[in-house]
Amino acid sequence: MNTSNRRVPLDQRKRTETSCDKCKSRKQKCDRLPGQDECRYCQRQGIVCATTQVRKKRIYGSVEGLGTRLSLLESLVKGLLPEADLSSVDEMRALGRSLGIPLPASDESGLDTTKNSNKQDEEITLPDQQGQDQYIGPASSFYFHLNLRGLFGPEATKGLSRFIMFGRNAADTKYEAYAVERRNTLEYGQESSPESFVSLGQPPSHTYNSPSAGLPDIDQHTLDSLVVAFFDHIHADFPVLHEASFREEYETWSLNPSGVDRAWLCSLLCVLILARRVAPHIRISEEQEEKWWCRVQALLPSVVFMTSMPAVQALMLSALHLHNNYHRDACWTLTGAAVRIAFAIGIHRDGVKAKQTPVNRELRKRLWWSLYGFEQIQVSSHDRPSAIENSACSVGCPRASILGMGEHSPPEHGMWSNRLVVILGQACRISKTCTSTNSDDTYLGPLSPAAGILRDLTRWKQSLPAHLTLESIDSSPPSFQRPLLLLHSQYHYTVSLISRSALFSRATILNDNSTELLPPSLLSLSDTCIESGRTLAQLQKKLDSLGKFNAVTWWDIYYNFSGALILVLDIICTVMQSGAAAASESRELLRQAADLALQHSQNPLMPGTIHKWATVVVEIGYMTEQF
């Protein structure tokens, strides 16, 4: 270009070839004359003029073009390595090293959007029902619900400063009541024995071997029926045990209660406790459940110190019961212990060779994936760090035919569900970059971490075999319908998790100024969230219409709760932009979600945590009707 045609002559151009560190930090022009080692500012201040920071690299080309190229590259990698984690630079470098691929040098000055922003909102802890402070992350379901209610005014959040789902100490009242009962029994004429006294602390195995000991009203037939109910209604959702092996051990225990493994006995007691919820025709009192749980509490201290598969199974079943009964903090702790024991016995690695039967090898795989999924949904709900590092795990999909699970779920269901669990874990790791305070393209555009996760989810859905799609549900066998609906619920929950902060930002902006022009990236991501929120609510309604909605032991109500929160924000945005009449579809879906929650909350067997979620759905449904 002819220098005479320049708009700004060369001697007056403001751009500097290389700026010193001091001028960069002050964000000012570094005025350095040709041939001089120091700039004018450093000369005047009498400081060393040094240039050590790497010059910022400029990206040429449109964001859309780069996004398309990135999407194609991701598709190529995912086609070769379906389980590859591309959610962060560190994960991609770890993947490259594991494959022996030469990588470019790390650019420390580059933007790593997976790291916490310096402008992140101040994080606080919340008191639980014990008065103890608990950390709940800013991307948690609790804060999302709290912020959503804040859009209706300060009165809507009144009384929500305490996290009631972290209840009182799970080891206090019930165990104390049982200990008092035991002491009273000893005081009134029963001969004292070493076994009796030890039973108040850590009992020997024979003291607690029979859950029906001293309880003549619980006969063997009732216990048998509860075991059947567990495997009929809970096992497929939470495949922790191997039914054939468990039943064999159960029959042995029925004939000879002595010498049973404590971890197995702990699992049996949890099976009975959980099965009580799904077998209303079997009358088991709350007092009986409390006595069984007290025995579980007495066994848990010894189970935690075991390094075996039965210990992992017992901890997971105990954690599920605690989770459902206002003890999500204790559930979190036991789940973490189960993860550590799983690491210790190597079930997170396929390469670990041990003298095991084919059934046991497949059971290890399935137990790992059940534990992984159970931990990740807690991580997503609490926004806490996971105990599981995906790059350290290498577990294939278990063979359902060997485990006898073929009749409970369609072919390949486990493989596609496991892939979804991995994507959920990736979504949880980047959730802090998707807070409502971040509304620029760095966090919402095609190059953002959220967009990368959504591309993974889109590829997952597009690659599903025909027999696992939503369209195949009505023609599937009845036993396959619930697993399929839960699989797609898990998918839409993950989509909404990664995109709901964009929808909240949209609602907040419109609530302040309904005429403000919204960024296209924010609109696109929030529309994706709305679509998944609606589908999530519809899937729970479908489950209920088929008579397969589980409101007493699994995540069905939580999915209904998550979908309802999205619907509320959708209604707020639609009313602000287009008027009340335009929100009729989402209002109807929210009304159905509230009716579903209200209907099942009448069940006296619904545990506390699940009942609270159901109550919230009914409350926000009523609040939105007034909007």
Automatic annotation (TrEMBL):
Its BP terms in the Gene Ontology are: DNA-templated transcription
Tell me where in this chain the Zn(2)-C6 fungal-type domain is found.
Answer: 19-51
**Single GO MF annotation:** DNA-binding transcription factor activity, RNA polymerase II-specific
Q: Which UniProt keywords apply?
A: Metal-binding, Nucleus, Transcription, Transcription regulation
Keyword Zinc-finger attributed? no
Q: Which Pfam families match?
A: Fungal_trans (PF04082)
- Superkingdom, taxonomy of origin: Eukaryota
- Protein name in the entry: Zn(2)-C6 fungal-type domain-containing protein
Give the species this sequence originates from.
Mytilinidion resinicola
